[in-house]
Amino acid sequence: MYIDINNLDIEQISLDYNISQKYIISSMCQCKSVYCSKKSINYNKEIILEKIVKDRGIEFVIHFTRIENLKSILKNGIKSRKKLEKHKINSIFNDEYRIDGFENATCCSICHPNYKMFYSLRQSNLEHEWAVICIKKDIIWKKDCAFCIENAASSNVTSIPIEQRKGKKAFKKLFAELTTSPTRKELNIPDSCPTNPQAEILVFEDIKPEDIIGVAFNSSTRAEEYKKLYKNFQFIYHRAFFGPRLDYEFWR
């Protein structure tokens, strides 16, 4: 009888027994009754996260940016500030400073933009136009990501070591009930949305053009303009992305 390591929750075993995942895989692969491959660790993480994402009905990941950055993004993808500066790629950054300390990561959201931050940025200069980029959900399990239960720069998040913000357990915390707030059901939060509207994902790899589904604008004219320019992406007018979540009254 053989045990397929890909069917085991290696991450949970690691947490339960305080043993590194690498050690578990290595030890099990030395046993003749266990089947494993070189990619077992990553594969196991992927299938677990993919199931959670699909069970929750998550359709896409979101990143908002100034419209001036869109041409470069649709051609080269979304890159971290560190890479943009290293390769001298002209770009307008959302934040003057990355208080979260990770200039090698891109900030994204699930279901809806971090509307508190998005609103503040838009109000700081009303003349600027913004775009909301919709990204394929599979980056959650295929790319190196850290999951932040609220704004990635908050002390509640930065106090958690980055490795503890990765994997299934960290991802599930995005949707956990909070003792300091009404229940998710009472707040009418959809299964696909994190509990805290400022929850974020830090993506430590490039988001390639093929990872991008399309772009939402706050103008139907702008959406039609981009439809004519790019045939490989979807462009829509979607005002909801430029407003708060339905439970905003509680988080004010």
Detailed description of the structure:
This protein has 252 residues and is an alpha+beta fold. It folds into two domains: 3-54, no CATH class; 57-251, no CATH class. The longest helix has 16 residues, at 40-55. It starts with a strand and ends with a helix. The chain has helices at 10-17, 21-29, 40-55, 70-76, 81-86, 115-124, 139-142, 155-158, 167-173, 184-187, 220-229, 248-251; strands spanning 3-4, 34-35, 60-66, 106-110, 130-136, 145-148, 200-203, 212-217, 234-237. Residues 1-5 have low confidence and may be disordered. It is globular, with a radius of gyration of 20 Å. Strand 8, helix 11 and strand 9 form a beta-alpha-beta unit.
What are the main properties of this structure?
252 residues, alpha+beta, 2 domains, seven-stranded mixed β-sheet, 12 helices, 9 strands, globular, disordered N terminus
Beta strand %:
15-25%
Distance between the termini: 57 Å
DSSP summary, beta strand count: 9
The low-confidence parts are 1-5
The helix/strand order is EHHEHEHHEHEHEHHHEEHEH
> Helical percent range?
25-40%
Q: What Rg, in angstroms, do the CA atoms define?
A: 20 Å
Gross geometry: globular
Number of helices: 12
Average pLDDT for all residues: 87
The strand order across the widest sheet is: 6-7-4-3-5-8-9
Summarize the structure.
By secondary structure, the chain is of the alpha+beta class. It has helices at 10-17, 21-29, 40-55, 70-76, 81-86, 115-124, 139-142, 155-158, 167-173, 184-187, 220-229, 248-251; strands at 3-4, 34-35, 60-66, 106-110, 130-136, 145-148, 200-203, 212-217, 234-237. It has two domains: 3-54, no CATH class; 57-251, no CATH class.
